[in-house]
Write a structure and sequence with these properties.
- The protein has about 140 residues and is mostly helical.
- It has a single domain, classed as Leucine-rich Repeat Variant, CATH 1.25.10.
- The protein is about 75% helix and about 0% strand.
- The longest helix has 16 residues.
- It is globular, with a radius of gyration of 14 Å.
Length: about 140
């Protein structure tokens, strides 16, 4: 499964096509990921560009469980643009357990506040919703 997801995320397809169609296919593939697939995608991230990481973050939601959650947390250490998308996807992890983890991590709050300083209005709204949801 990893190879198929990696191939789609690596394609130089138009963003509209990816966000309208391909992301659903990637989500379906990721729902069948084994632990090895998750380890492969995490290990391969260091060699990927921001576009790949943003697309990956867009495809992850609460259905991906702890691997998806931890991967999004790792993406917060990337560029601000990648972190914005990771934060947006983290909003889908709205269970009590996830909110406690987020609320207890000062680095997450610091990253959100750093991005907020120069955020556009739509990004500002996403970040504010994230802060409110997690009571940061």
């Amino acid at each position: 499964m990893y190879d198929k997801v990696d191939a789609v995320l690596s394609e130089n397809s138009a963003d509209n096509y990816f966000y309208d169609d391909e992301f659903i296919y990637v989500q379906e593939l990721m729902s069948e990921f084994s632990n090895i697939d998750w380890e492969n995608i995490i290990q391969g991230l260091k060699d990927k560009d921001d576009k790949y990481k943003i697309r990956l973050a867009y495809c992850i939601d609460e259905d991906n469980g702890v691997y998806g959650f931890n991967l999004l947390l790792d993406l917060l250490n990337e560029s601000d643009e990648v972190a914005e998308h990771a934060i947006d996807s983290l909003r889908s992890f709205d269970g009590e357990e996830h909110r406690k983890i987020i609320a207890s991590n000062k680095q997450i709050k610091d990253k959100v506040e750093k991005i907020l300083k120069n955020a556009s209005l739509p990004v500002e709204r996403i970040l504010e919703a994230f802060l409110q949801q997690n009571k940061l």
